Every structure is written in C-alpha cells, then in structure tokens.
Amino acid sequence: MTDVPGKRWIEGGFNQQYLGVGGQDFIAISTKQIIKFYFFSTRSSRIYMPPGSSDGVGVISGRDDIGVVAWSELRINPRVFVYQHQSPADYKTLKGTAALEYRSLAFSDERFLVGISGVPDFYVNLWDWEEENLLCCVPLNRPLPDQHNLIHSAFPPSSGPGLANRFTVLTCGVLSVWGIERVSDNFRISAQPLQVSSVISCTFAYPSDLY
C-alpha cells in the first residue's frame, strides 16, 4: 500500500465510493468537496474543483486498465464526469435521470458506465461514456429508508463472451444480475434476481466468479 502524503483527507473515514483507482500510476480521492488526483511515478498531485454550479462531489469510480475515473456531482439534476489520464483536458459529461444524487457508478470492460440514482427516483442509468450518450434507464426496486446507502453495482473484470453485457446490482440485501441487450440502435437492460438474501457485499473474482 502506498500512502498519499498530506492531511487526513476523507471525511468520516474511508469509503469505497470516495476512491477511484485509475491505474498503476494514479488514484483519485474525493473529500465530497474536491477531488485529489495523486500520481505515483512523479509523486505529484492535481486538484479538481467542481464548478460553481455544483455543491460538491458525489460517488467516484475508476477503470484501471485505460486510466479513467468517473464521478458524480452534488446538485439538483447532477451530471457525471469522466476524466481520462491520457487526455486530462477532455472531460466527458454525462446526463442521466437522477434528480438529486447518484449512489453508485461502475465501468464495464468496454464502453459502458452504469450509474444508480438515489433519493427520490432510484433509476439504473446506462451510458456509452465515450460518446456521452445515455443509452437507457429503468427503475430500481425502491430501498427502505434506512437502506438508501446499501446500493452497489459492478461489472465482471473480464471481457469474455457475454460478460461485458452483464453487471450486478446490490440493494436492500438483494443481489441481482442485469443483462444488456441491443436491438439495432436501441439498448435495453433487465434484471434477474438471484435466490439469495441478506447480502451485505459482493465482489467479482477473475474472470467471472461472483462472491
């Protein structure tokens, strides 16, 4: 583990939703107010300040094989931004259905990014982040009031046959597998709940095992 020099950054301690691993060379850490990009090879850092129209930073996620990090902003009708290490001035801007917040972001091994919105709408959004297109969105089963924080999404780490078109969603202790289908230029996503309950967390192990 490599320590990032400086003051204690994350309010309230470590939370996976505030850390994005963009590759072997850099990570992004959110304080809810700003994002600090730390580059290991040069031991340098860069600060991202949200624009004046934003109230801060929401959740964050990274894809380490191509050096990209995505994060949501805190405001009414929040946007999602994608930072590319190789093109730091070229921020991708994604617009979805969230009214107030996103609770989870996840990259696929290809061009997809999934974002799950929170209160009050709870929608699953699917983007082609490279083209900045919202492909589709569907409602999620509404969590109980005390379980709004228990929302997580993930893609398998492998792009084997069919794997890039599936992802998992964990909410209210229920784990479901979602499939992405394309018909012509239209995309559709649908869920298949698994016969398990009271799940606290889950993770993929290469290439496609789910624990």
Q: How would you portray this structure in words?
A:
The protein has strands at residues 19-21, 26-30, 35-39, 44-48, 57-63, 68-73, 79-84, 87-95, 102-107, 112-117, 123-128, 133-139, 151-154, 166-171, 174-183, 186-193, 204-205, 209-210. It is built from no helices and 18 strands. It is mostly beta strands. Mean pLDDT is 77; it is low at 1-14. Helices cover 0% and strands 49% of the residues. The strands form 5 sheets. Strands 1-2-3-4 form a 4-stranded antiparallel β-sheet, with no helix packed on it. Strands 5-6-7-8 form a 4-stranded antiparallel β-sheet, with no helix packed on it. The two termini are 24 Å apart.
Written as H for each helix and E for each strand, in order along the chain, the element string is EEEEEEEEEEEEEEEEEE
The chain-level mean pLDDT equals 77
Number of strands: 18
Helix coverage percent? under 10%
| Number of DSSP helical runs | 0
- Biggest pleated-sheet summary: 4 strands, antiparallel
Strand order of the largest sheet: 1-2-3-4
Query: Runs with pLDDT <50, length 5+?
Result: 1-14
**General form:** globular
Quaternary class: single chain
Q: Tell me the strand percentage band.
A: over 45%
Topology diagram in text:
Layout: E1 19-21, E2 26-30, E3 35-39, E4 44-48, E5 57-63, E6 68-73, E7 79-84, E8 87-95, E9 102-107, E10 112-117, E11 123-128, E12 133-139, E13 151-154, E14 166-171, E15 174-183, E16 186-193, E17 204-205, E18 209-210
